[in-house]
Write a structure and sequence with these properties.
Layout: E1 11-14, H1 18-29, E2 35-39, E3 56-58, H2 65-78, E4 87-88, E5 92-96, H3 102-117, E6 125-128, H4 131-137, E7 149-153, E8 157-159, H5 161-174, E9 178-181, E10 187-195, E11 198-206, E12 211-213, E13 216-219, H6 225-228, E14 237-247, H7 250-255, E15 261-264, E16 268-270, E17 279-283, E18 289-290, H8 313-326, E19 336-345, E20 352-355, E21 363-367, H9 377-390, E22 424-425, H10 426-429
Helix pairs in contact: 1-5, 1-9, 2-9
Bound molecules: flavin-adenine dinucleotide.
Amino acid sequence: MTMGVQKSDPIIIVGGGAFGLSTALHLTRSGFTNISVYEKDDHIPPRYSAANDLNKIVRAEYEDPFYTDLTIKAIAEWKTPLFAPFFHQTGFLHCVSGDASQKAIDTLARFRASAEKNAQIKPHVVPLDNVNDVRQACWQLDGPLTGWNGYLNRFDGYAHSGNALAAVYRAAQAAGVRFYLGEHGAVDEVVYVSTLQGRKSSGIRTKDGKFHPSSLVIVAAGGAVGRLVPELGKKVVAKSWSVAHVQLTDEETSALRGIPITYARDLGFLFEPDPKTNLLKICPMGGGFINTDPKTGISHAPDTLEESAFVPDHDEKQMRKLLAHTLPALANRPLVKRSLCWFADTDDSDFIIDYVPGTSDSVVVLSGDSGHGFKMFPIFGSWVSDFLEHSRQRNAQWRWKQTDPNAEKGNWGGDVSWRLGESLELKDIRPKVVSKL
Ligand SMILES: Cc1cc2nc3c(=O)[nH]c(=O)nc-3n(C[C@H](O)[C@H](O)[C@H](O)COP(=O)(O)OP(=O)(O)OC[C@H]3O[C@@H](n4cnc5c(N)ncnc54)[C@H](O)[C@@H]3O)c2cc1C
């Protein structure tokens, strides 16, 4: 261990979502003994967490082999006793429809090449060259599937993210981590003092006015990170995608048991229904929605859940189109539990695991999940533990990048290779409120 934080030093983690909980667990495994997690919701899984959800895709093939290798490690860990109850290796049916743009087709081709290039993944890849192949791979998809082609990767699956958060919360508690939830856990600010060496954090202040001292503050606040670490500026954009569900019967859920994650890059994706709630989740993807503060030009996740409790019309149409292609009996059903789900986006989709500059190594930020971080849940915290052991980020991709590549822009909707469409502003997609007067 270098000069950094000592194993018995008080460490505060802000945020009890995916990155915060994984970090708490792994720090206890590495011998850190004085860890407190502060979470603004009064229970875990927190409703504000992007991972408070029925399921997230755990797919190993990335355009960047760096993340492919990490996901292979994560999947091995998903199969260990703590995580296995939440991992379902249903396979990932990854296609484009006949209407797809060239960008979608090219992206699919890069994902496929990544899967086929990897010796561990390749044996699990089944080509789907036409609609018949798709039906062979999944007989339940009884819609027209017009023009669908791509591949099925049986190496991949999904994780029940909300339940996985709850399990790691219990495991971290059992390992001695203290949790402060609700009004005692909502963090107002990181508190700084001036020292001869420069500015340094002395702890945090919670919304109830209390000061909590610590040697190190680790901020893992998801889409709300900008409020606590304004130094990020436009390096991170709070962004959201739509999520909605179809309520099925027991019989319908049973009939769809075991279907792969079904993803047309141009239409979005859906999952095997959840057997407990009979909900089938759909996500239309796209360029996402941002919530830019006109004064600062910085996008923040809204403070209340109500502001995100809808999906825009365009996304609803897109979700119905996906159903019409795949499971047409469901295409006109009500879409329930609609919401926008907020994450922290970087321009290169890389995570950030590093000290905040100008804090004398007293504040670490875990951010930039870029909408693909949950699959790493079983191992994410080991990277933080490794970082603290070395007191520096040895992996250039996860450093606090000094240049602000899009200082003038900070949106990068359609620029991201694996997404289609531009980012829109939340204020422009809000449902029109009908006056009750
Ligand atoms: C629609 C959608 C689909 C996704 N699909 C996938 C997928 O298929 N596969 C995948 O791997 N990933 C997926 N993701 C990404 C995944 O959900 C995130 O990468 C992951 O949840 C990020 O974890 P986090 O801890 O950074 O943020 P979160 O999980 O959002 O947690 C942040 C936590 O910080 C808390 N917090 C915020 N501010 C404060 C404060 N001031 N005080 C105290 N607590 C605070 C919040 O309440 C929250 O609990 C998806 C994301 C979205 C939005």
